[in-house]
């Protein structure tokens, strides 16, 4: 938090900022609230929801609280979207793969809800995260940690990497479709 306050030009720190809350934090936070246009009791140096959200303090895993940097934290794409290949039923890869050890956590990339939690011969154990008009498919899971209907927050662990269904090794197949879209309606898996 302190680093973000400094970056916003609201520093009242003589030293630091440090890990524990102190008077300089309060003074710096009050300066941030004033920068946002708050005054009086709304600029008392005690974080409120609006000013906190606007500050976008990174969480320890590099996320800002409303968007995870990867569906498999600390792992990048190992097979990209739309790569051609005859072993895929549509002749191309319909999502992005994140190879990782069996059991590696998979997290919600955005705040949303679980619209489906089911099994499929190809996708294995899978979950579908619905966010506004989009579905994000998490496939080949070894384990599901949430069920259909659950509300989930960005960065929340919802499943674990596996190789259930049609998979040659443990990885997350991460696919995006319009909400309710069937196989073949995939779009680039951005979020
Ligand atoms: Zn895949």
Automatic annotation (TrEMBL):
Residues 40-80, 163-191 are annotated as: Disordered. Keywords: Hydrolase. InterPro entries: Cell_wall_metabolism_enzyme, Dup_hybrid_motif, M23ase_b-sheet_dom, PG_bind_dom_phiBT1-type. Residues 48-69 have a biased composition (Polar residues). The keyword Hydrolase applies. Gene3D superfamilies: Glucose Permease (Domain IIA) (2.70.70.10). Residues 92-178 form the M23ase beta-sheet core domain. PANTHER family: MUREIN HYDROLASE ACTIVATOR ENVC, PEPTIDASE-RELATED. NCBIfam families: PG_bind_siph (NF038080). This is Murein DD-endopeptidase MepM/ murein hydrolase activator NlpD.
């Amino acid at each position: 938090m302190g680093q973000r306050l400094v970056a916003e030009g609201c520093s009242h720190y003589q030293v630091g900022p440090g890990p524990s809350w102190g008077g300089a934090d309060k003074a710096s936070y009050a300066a941030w609230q004033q920068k946002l246009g708050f005054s009086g009791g709304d600029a008392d140096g005690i974080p409120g929801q609006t000013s906190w959200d606007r500050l976008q303090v990174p969480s320890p895993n590099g996320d800002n609280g409303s968007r995870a940097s990867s569906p498999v934290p600390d792992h990048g794409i190992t097979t990209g979207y739309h790569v051609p290949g005859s072993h895929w039923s549509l002749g191309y890869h319909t999502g992005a793969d994140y190879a990782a050890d069996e059991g590696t956590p998979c997290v919600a990339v955005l705040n949303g809800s679980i619209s489906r939690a089911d099994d499929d011969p190809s996708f294995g154990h899978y979950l579908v995260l619905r966010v506004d008009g989009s579905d994000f498919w998490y496939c080949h899971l070894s384990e599901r940690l949430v069920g259909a209907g659950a509300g989930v927050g960005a960065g929340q662990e919802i499943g674990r990497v596996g190789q259930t269904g049609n998979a040659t090794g443990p990885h997350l197949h991460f696919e995006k479709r319009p909400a309710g879209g069937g196989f073949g309606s995939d779009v680039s898996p951005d979020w």
